Amino acid sequence: MIKLNIPTITSIEAFDACLSGIVSTDMKQNYMDTQHDILSAYDVYEAKANQLKLYEIPFIKQLKNEDIVVGDLSKGDFKHLYNYYMVKRPVGRKIYDKLMIESGGRCPYCGISETYNLDHYLPKSKYPIYSVLPINLIPSCRDCNTGKLAGHSRKAKKQTLHPYFEDECFYLDNWIDADITGYKPLTLSFFVRVPDEWSDINKARAKQHFKDFNLNTKYSLRASDELTTVWDQRNNFFDGLPDDFKKQLQSNIVESLSVNHWKIVVYKTLVEDDLLYDRLRC
Ligand SMILES: [Zn+2]
Hints:
Largest sheet: 2 strands, antiparallel
Shape: elongated
Strand order of the largest sheet: 1-2
Mean pLDDT: 91
Structural class: mainly alpha
Distance between the termini: 37 Å
Radius of gyration: 23 Å
Low-confidence stretches: none
Number of helices: 13
Bound molecules: zinc ion
Number of strands: 6
């Protein structure tokens, strides 16, 4: 997981950029007429996001494309504002690309894969009014965007982490751990071990995020690839004593990586296993 800085693009900049691509003066006027209501909704989003209470924003169930959201604008109009005027038209696309670039290129949900497109934290199917709001647009990898196991929830404990607003504890405290599940070949399984002092809501949210983004599978696959190298080089490791072996493993713990980075978790788990030296050797 990676915490992102709030986008430098303001909501008004993004909204105006998308509107600039609309050729129909009537349609553009529809957006202009409701701009005040749209910007008020944006303010509500920002306030709730800062309080980590986005789950309190209501939505209309089973909203159809033709259903009106605000003024004369339908759900379909807001989806089109994103799908066409932000994604495909030149001025809107500059905003899209800037949001992608500002993220640093690494998916904040999983922390491992390259960003591929923008994910709507509050999905545009349920919250179309936020379709082009920059702070609702999370640059993410293809897997995390399309492979989310669960959709948006209106329960506090089921909210996945919001990379722009999230509590620092998710990035500073260690809450992802692993067990060695096999020695030949060397394999690991990841799980959530939340600090006792965390609130019940944060404890539940960590587990939800881990599950929704399928992080055990993603991290286990990365670890498996990494551990193949450890396995292949094991004979070099056994030139020395068990302590030398541990030092060799420890040298892979790069301090610049975050405490929950899969690679840090892998090598910490290996270093902490006192039987590893003997088990790999025999
Ligand atoms: Zn991802």
